[in-house]
Amino acid sequence: MNLTDTADRWWKNAVFYCADVQTFLDFDGDGQGDLRGMLHRVDYLADLGITCLWLMPFYPTAGRDDGYDITDFYGVDPKLGSAGDFVELVRTCHSRGIRIVVDFVMNHTSDGHRWWKEAVGSTESPFRDWYVWRSSTPPDTSKQVVFPDQEDAIWDKDPASGEWYLHNFYKTQPDLNLANPAVRDEVMRTMGYWLQLGVDGFRIDAVPFLFAQDQVPRKEQKFPPFDPHDYLRNLKAFADRRNGTAMFLGEVNLPYPQMAEFFGSGDADELSMQFDFIGMQATYLSMARGDTRPLAKALRERPRIDPGSQWANFLRNHDELTLDKLSKAERQEVFDAFGANKDMQLFDRGLRRRLPPMLGGDERRIRMAYSLIFSLPGTPVLFYGEEIGMGENLDVPGRLSVRTPMQWQPGDNAGFSTSGRRSLVRPVTEGAYGPDEINVARQRSDPDSLWSFVQRLISRYRQSPEIGWSSVEVLDPGDRRVLAHVCRKDEWSLVALHNFAAEPVEVTVEVPGLKRGSQLVDLLTPGTPPRLETGARGRITLMMPAYGYAWWRVVVEDDRRIDH
Ligand code: GLC
Description:
Blueprint: H1 5-8, E1 16-19, H2 21-24, H3 35-39, H4 42-48, E2 52-55, H5 83-95, E3 99-104, H6 114-121, E4 133-134, E5 155-157, E6 164-166, H7 181-196, E7 201-204, H8 228-242, E8 247-250, H9 256-262, E9 273-275, H10 277-289, H11 293-301, E10 310-313, E11 321-322, H12 328-338, E12 345-346, E13 350-351, H13 355-358, H14 363-375, E14 379-383, H15 440-444, H16 450-462, H17 465-469, E15 472-475, E16 482-489, E17 492-499, E18 505-510, E19 519-522, E20 531-533, E21 539-544, E22 549-554
Parallel strand pairs: 1-2, 1-14, 2-3, 3-7, 7-8, 8-9, 9-10, 10-14
Antiparallel strand pairs: 4-6, 5-6, 11-13, 12-13, 15-16, 16-17, 17-22, 18-21, 19-20, 19-22
Bound molecules: alpha-D-glucopyranose.
């Protein structure tokens, strides 16, 4: 493959790292993380090797949905810093070769936003139609609510006018009306603003919910219907005009065929990337069963995508670990395996735990899971703290259990803040996953730590763009406990094997396209890399240890990459 291709479509083999400014590092000692704290950890991120920092919302907020309820799209939450601090962060990241992507939440505003206040203040306000209204009584929408613990409908009555407004999320988050051209202009203006400040792309929140107009009875719709795909295409074209390599990463938790539509019909002319929610859920089901068939099936069903599009592979994000696309029985299997207590579950569809405690702290299994996620075609996305194996704090309510302060050091406040414990934005995790056991300081100096392992995965992934640039080819290793796949881009290919079982398994796979005598080199074993020679029809036989993993690069004569 041509290495220079990787310079433009940078998201095709990037390593994303999602962080919440609020919980990363508190620079000024007030108990809240801040942008200056983040800036002081850019070299840490560069050392880990990530190439793109995704910041969760850092805008002024009413604080009802951890920043996803924004009161000013052009601002920075004063508790976190200033616009100046933001620009310094962008500059510093760029100087270290790290791109910045910001969360872009244009499905709704907070009810504390000036537009909403004007909209409810008078039905004559020009802002009234920035939101979605109906005067007829809505039908039962209790099945459509996203947060069933707090909401029982997606419409609420505005007492002043007696009309109903749409809120797909909390009632304090009224949906914006994208059918209104004035709102569409504002979305572009907002995007243009952040691009001008130097960001490299956007994580677009709640994409399927953006097109709220559908929820309004036809005769009550005030604007002509518009095509969501035309709209996204225009928005992407706009971002490309402002910054030729801008990237859109969409949150689209839908079945594959519907996701495929959001990539667009040209070459990534709508969303550049989408999270693979389906593959993620299948991974957990496969881990729960010690049987790779659900994952293999999901990978085979993944729609083919254009070269500019990309899947974002992840094991954990900042929300509940949703299992909503599994059947009820399958979901129950995952609950039984990884979070049997009711307190570990959320919304009847997900888990509010982090990966290591779910896997009982079994380091072999944890490493297998990360090796897998980095070896699948796509771009890996880490959630802060995954690199050291942080756990959750179930005493923290709801989804926030996994958004506890980053654990830098042992001892007080995990090195996150010098403030008193009681003024911390959120309590630090305690016990076996607390900072005395799990922290950056110890793991960075230990070549055998999880941190060092993740660093190695990142480096090998970055040196193997055939992973990001390929489509998945699942092989048949003759044993359902082992997933074998090959990532192939032109003459470069990498064979990966992952054993989901607690016992060693010997497997034999035939790698299509290889003949007898091809050489493979092990990319993950530290030290001198062992080599392997294929038998007839590209056959290899390997003994996979319990929860073992292996990445084998096929040696190509004129490949000048280093392999150790
Ligand atoms: C997305 C975010 C979630 C947020 C919601 C509403 O799903 O990931 O954290 O609560 O949108 O903005």
